[in-house]
Amino acid sequence: FFSCSYLSLHSTLRFTSLCSLSLRSALSLQGMSDEEHHFESKADAGASKTYPQQAGTIRKNGYIVIKGRPCKVVEVSTSKTGKHGHAKCHFVGIDIFNAKKLEDIVPSSHNCDVPHVNRTDYQLIDISEDGFVSLLTENGNTKDDLRLPTDENLLSQIKDGFAEGKDLVVTVMSAMGEEQICALKDIGPK
Predict the structure, then answer these.
(1) Which neighbouring-strand residues pair with 76?
(2) How remote is the C-alpha of 84 from its chain's centroid?
(3) Mean pLDDT score across all residues of the chain
(4) Domains, the chain, ranges and CATH?
(5) Burial of 52 (0-12, 13-18, 19+ CB in 10 A)
(6) What's the pLDDT score for residue 46?
(7) What was the pLDDT predicted at 138?
(8) pLDDT tens across 27-85, in order?
(9) For strand 118-127 and strand 166-175, is the pairing parallel, antiparallel, or unpaired?
(10) How far apart are CA 53 and CA 40, in angstroms?
(11) In contact, 56 and 87? CB cutoff 8 Å
(12) Which of 26, 37, 70, 122 has the CA that lies 20 to 30 A from 94?
């Protein structure tokens, strides 16, 4: 038993070494060392946009992915188990970005995707003519890739407050690669 495990491990280590050696050879043929061959990405390295959660544990005011969209759960009902099959959860959710109502029915023992939803506050610096905002990040950089919100009430509050010269802090909600301004805090005159 021990010798088989040892041989298997030894073979795996030799194969890994050969692969590593082949990569070094290929890089040296291209005139690069493996120290010069590095990758950079601004995306979260391997960070998932969702995580699994059992359907029966998801509650009202929680979040769930329905038809590929991040939703806030506004209603949950559970049916009893039938003669054949599982109890089922009926979810009614509101898309957190476009406010559309979506529904799904899932067996309560199955896993559902739940989006990672984050809220971040930024100080509003400027509003461009084409509807983009310039926001000040926590580390002093500017974030210029967000549009004004589509919600008319929030939009007018932001525009009016900015025109009056008030210091405004906006809350940006992000989930599944999307971001949107979702709230406004008036922190007084400049």
Answers:
(1) 91
(2) 37
(3) 80
(4) 50-115 (2.30.30.30), 117-186 (2.40.50.140)
(5) exposed
(6) 53
(7) 92
(8) 344 444 444 443 333 445 556 899 999 999 999 999 999 999 999 999 999 998 777 77
(9) antiparallel
(10) 32
(11) yes
(12) 122
DSSP 42-104: SS-TT--SEEEEEGGG--TTSEEEETTEEEEEEEEEEEPP-SSS--EEEEEEEETTT--EEEE
Helix (H/G/I), strand (E/B), else coil: 129: coil
**Both tokens assigned to 161:** 């407050």
Residue 119 tokens read as 């809220």
Helix (H, G, I), strand (E, B) or coil at 175: strand
In contact, 52 and 114? CB cutoff 8 Å:
yes
Write out pLDDT tens, residues 127-153. Answer: 999 999 999 999 999 999 999 998 999
**What CA–CA distance (Å, rounded) separates 138 from 158?**
20
Query: Helices then strands (H, E): number in the chain?
Result: 2, 11
Are 140 and 152 a contacting pair, CB within 8 Å? no
Q: How far apart are CA 32 and CA 27, in angstroms?
A: 5
CB 39 within 8 A of CB 150: no
**DSSP 8-class letter at 117:** -
Cα torsion through 160, 161, 166, 172, rounded to 10: -140
